[in-house]
Amino acid sequence: MIDVGNPTGGARVVKSTLITGLWSLALMALGWAMSGCGAVGADSGSTSRRAERLVITGSSTVAPLVAEIGKRFEASEGVRVDVQTGGSSRGIADARSGLADIGMASRALGAEEEDLAGFTIARDGICVIVHRDNALTELSDPQVVEIFTGRLANWQAVGGDEREITVVNKAEGRSTLELFLKHFALDNRDIAASVVIGDNEQGIKTVAGNPGAIGYVSIGAAEHAVARGVAIKLLPMSGVDASTETLSAGIFPLARPLTLVTHGKTSALAQRFINYAGSPAVYDLVRELSFVPAG
Amino acid sequence: MPAHRPFTIWSESYRLSRRVDWLLLWSLRLSAIVSGALVLFITIFVVAEAWPALRNIGVWRFLNDASWYPSGGADGGTFNLVPMFVGTLLTTAGAILLAAPLGVLAAIFRQAYAPPGVGRVYRWLIELLAGIPSVVYGFWGLVVLVPMIARFEPPGASLLAGILILTLMILPTTALASDAALESVPRRYVEGAAALGLGRWAALHCVALPAAGSGIATGVLLATGRALGETMAVLMVCGNVVAVPASLFDPVRTLTANIALEMAYALEDHRSALFVSGLLLLLMVSALVLAAEAVDRRQTVG
Question: How would DSSP label each residue in B237-253?
Answer without folding.
Answer: HSB---S--SSTTS-B-
